[in-house]
Design goal:
EC number: 1.3.3.11
Radius of gyration: 18 Å
Pathway: Cofactor biosynthesis; pyrroloquinoline quinone biosynthesis
Family: Belongs to the PqqC family.
Helix content: over 70%
Number of domains: 1
Structural class: mainly alpha
Keywords: Oxidoreductase, PQQ biosynthesis
Distance between the termini: 65 Å
Strand content: under 5%
Function: Ring cyclization and eight-electron oxidation of 3a-(2-amino-2-carboxyethyl)-4,5-dioxo-4,5,6,7,8,9-hexahydroquinoline-7,9-dicarboxylic-acid to PQQ.
CATH topology: Heme Oxygenase, Chain A
Largest sheet: none
Length: about 250
């Protein structure tokens, strides 16, 4: 039976309440100041792979959209990450965070040392958006519904617990507090409009669950390699690699 608009939105929000990666123990460790400098660096390196893949995901989505209005709306997401003449973009801001934690930004941007588990999860998301229906692709992006809460918690926790944290190094998260609401307002309304049958609603909900699994899997890979049991797989970043020159001396 097709749910009402309000009930379907509540269903999507419940998925986030139960499955969003703010519930993962790594975030408690990070935000509470329990991460070592190398664990923070491992997180920055692996999360960068996700950040740098998002514009490619959005470009893949736009290449399939025939409606110019939808393309115009979606284009700002790429600009938010890649930057414009007036906006340095989220990728540059993330590399500034990398430098603040003692990493060479060029090393991070090379994506060397990224965990295989991170790559598999992120690449699966890009492929999902490229191959699934437009409804499923947009629904998968609705994890943005839950992002402002984790960004606010992250800013507060990092500022309280880590010497590297300041307005410059945390500018990525501060900007997402402004950028994400406009994206999610459009994306949520579009999904609620388009998912007008039970089959479409089920597909959209499954897409959102898939995306929460993508985010959770990245943290599971990070936890297994750098926290507990702490077995770094072959080819992954090892402490001491890719440090900024001033920190390596």
């Amino acid at each position: 039976m097709t749910q009402s608009r309000a009930d379907f939105e509540a269903r999507l929000r419940q998925i986030g309440a139960e499955r969003y990666h703010d519930l993962h123990p790594f975030h408690d460790l990070l935000h509470g100041g329990g991460c070592s400098p190398d664990q923070v660096r491992a997180w920055v390196i692996n999360r960068y792979y996700y950040q740098h893949s998002i514009p490619m995901k959005d470009a893949a989505f736009m290449s399939r959209v025939e409606d110019p209005a939808l393309r115009r709306q979606w284009r700002s997401r790429i600009e938010d990450h890649d930057g414009t003449d007036r906006n340095e973009g989220g990728i540059r801001r993330w590399l500034r965070l990398a430098e603040a934690v003692g990493l060479d930004p060029d090393y991070v941007a090379s994506c060397q040392g990224v965990l295989a588990g991170t790559k598999f999860a992120v690449d699966a998301y890009v492929r999902y958006v490229r191959e699934k229906t437009l409804l499923e692709a947009v629904a998968a992006s609705l994890t943005e519904l839950f992002a402002p809460k984790i960004h606010a918690s992250r800013i507060e926790g990092l500022l309280q617990n880590y010497d590297f944290a300041d307005d410059s190094s945390l500018s990525y998260f501060r900007n997402r507090l402004k950028e994400a609401p406009k994206d999610v307002a459009f994306g949520l309304a579009w999904v609620l409009d388009q998912a007008d049958t039970q089959e479409k609603q089920d597909a959209a909900a499954a897409a959102l669950i898939f995306k929460t699994d993508v985010l959770w899997s990245q943290l599971d890979a990070l936890w297994g390699a750098y926290v507990e049991p702490g077995r770094i797989p072959p080819g992954a970043w090892c402490p001491g690699q890719g440090l900024a020159l001033q920190r390596a001396s």
